[in-house]
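so my prof wants the structure for this chain in the tokens format not the other one, which i didnt know existed until like an hour ago. anyway here's the sequence
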Amino acid sequence: MKMRFKTVTAAALLALAFGSATAQQAAGGGTLDKIKASGKVVLGVREASPPMAYMLGAGDKYVGYHVELCERVLKDITPTARLEYMAVTAQNTIPLVQNGTLDIGCGPTTNNTARQQQVAFALTTYVSEVRMATKVDSGITSLDQLAGRNVSASTGTTAVQLLRKRERAQNVSYNTMLGKDHLESFLLMESGRADAFVLDDNLLAGIIANSKNPAAYRIVGEALGSEPIALLFRKDDPAFKTAVDESLRKLMKSGELEKIYAKWFVAAIPPKNTSLNLPMSPALKQLMLEPNDKPLETYTK
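here's what i got, hopefully its the right format
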């Protein structure tokens, strides 16, 4: 049975952080022991990050590429455990993994060296390009045209960091407007308050496909960067990482992961039964042959 939790606030995180983490460390067990003792595994999912992880219907069903990968992996390594779903954001996913509230993060989280100091990442299961979405009639086709303009991005995403990096490198200035999640960031652009919305290409495609008027928007401009996206979990828990990685390797080797990818990125997806038309990239195909968990910095030339 799937269970839904409300998004956890920052204040709640502060209250949970040290007590939960300390209790888990004192117990001396890893994530697999915790799951075995409780009979459940808690998945961190996003409410508005299609096609990677999003909510359908009245709020009791979560779907998406990374949600399905999480479910397949957990059924493989903990077949009798009950799955519980907790709605999280880009901001609070890592703290909730750190303090033991989440057993695994199933949202679209970028693997970078700074985050590797806080949590562990599974093998890379998606490589995204950070680009921008604009209105078709805006005339904007390049990042150079955004100088001095309003640009929306979601709080806690690497898109914010990449925009600031480009400001320094190119000696330009953007008026960056932060949305609490991707739908709010898109609304800033949709309503005309922002001229562009910067995010991973796959997430932009999903949001546009499910918008009121998909034909009114397009993904344009050069990529700000390529990013490895992966499932994440508690740091310093080699047994759990090994189990997750081995399960993912089996999905890659059998060709099953490519089928799951096609289901969410090529075929029509709910709720509007539209296709993102994003076939698997050469970079991700290569990762299926040579899996690794290398961070973002190795993708930077």
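also thought this was worth mentioning. The first strand starts at residue 4 and ends at 5.
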